[in-house]
Write a structure and sequence with these properties.
Layout: H1 6-20, E1 22-25, E2 31-40, E3 43-48, E4 54-58, H2 64-76, E5 100-111, E6 117-131, E7 138-151, E8 159-171, E9 175-180, E10 184-190, E11 196-208, E12 214-220, H3 228-233, E13 239-241, E14 258-259
Antiparallel strand pairs: 1-2, 2-3, 3-4, 5-6, 6-9, 6-10, 7-8, 7-11, 8-13, 10-11, 10-14, 11-12
Length: 260
């Protein structure tokens, strides 16, 4: 015979589980019935009611009522508020898509004899960043620019990182900002003898949001934007890199051909 208190026990267990679950509402209006299992920084680990699977979400994506609930839960569960969360929580928060456009103007002068001897190239770039969103301002982003030269004496075509520029990016809706690089004077020799010096090569520009997601990437020559991690690893300029943007510590910078 089934004990008389068993139905009551089942009811209490189910009621407790129901109390722990909540319908979370995102800022875009999506609903999710789940319970909190851990909180780490801005990330909340939820266990979905429908299938019991964990899901990591950023608190920034939830409504203010959910944020207040999470704060109460953290106060009631301090041991779980610092628990490790699944590896997916280490991934950057999803990037907010912006209609961001970059127009580039180069200022370049090339002086010297056409048939030999030293030639001087003065180069700089101006970047016009347009936020074409109708209502959304772009705030808290950051930009990174690399200007590049080419070692004329290198058979492997090593590149010279001439400049690395960091700058803050905040653009109101339907507005633009302008960022320019300093002028660099390069010297090279051409003619019947061996080529020497540094040639102008191009640029890269990245715009990243506060979480490190790429909002815009552009380069000339094209195809170099896939080397974001390598670019971020460059800390001292000028320096030498190969065509895969890997540092060449054993290569000396042809500083005699570069003037800032």
């Amino acid at each position: 015979m089934r004990p008389p208190f068993l139905p009551l026990l089942i009811f209490l267990v189910c009621a407790q589980a129901a109390l722990q679950a909540r319908v979370f509402v995102s800022l875009v209006g999506t609903l999710l019935e789940a319970e909190i299992t851990a909180v780490s920084g801005d990330n909340v680990t939820l266990k979905r009611v429908n299938d019991g699977q964990p899901l990591v979400v950023s608190r920034k994506t939830l409504c203010k009522e959910d944020l207040a609930y999470i704060s109460r839960w953290m106060a009631e569960n301090p041991d779980k508020a610092s628990m490790a969360v699944p590896a997916s929580a280490d991934a950057p928060a999803p990037a907010q898509k912006y209609s961001l456009v970059c127009e580039v103007q180069s200022s370049k002068s090339n002086r010297g004899p056409p048939d030999g001897g030293p030639r001087n190239v003065e180069i700089s770039y101006t970047f016009h960043l347009h936020n074409r969103e109708v209502k959304r301002d772009l705030e808290g982003a950051r930009g990174m620019i690399l200007t590049l030269g080419k070692d004329a004496t290198s058979n492997g075509g090593d590149l010279v990182v001439l400049q690395k520029v960091h700058f803050d990016v905040a653009i109101r809706a339907q507005s633009k900002i302008v960022q320019s690089t300093e002028k660099v004077l390069l010297t090279y020799y051409q003619g019947l003898g061996p080529r020497m010096g540094v040639l102008a090569h191009g640029y890269l520009i990245f715009i990243l949001d506060a979480a490190g997601n790429v909002l815009l990437s552009q380069s000339n020559p094209v195809g170099s934007t896939k080397y974001l991690k390598e670019v971020q690893a460059i800390t001292e300029v000028p320096c030498m890199i190969d065509r895969d943007f890997k540092l060449q510590p054993n290569s000396s910078v042809p500083a005699g051909y570069i003037q800032f």
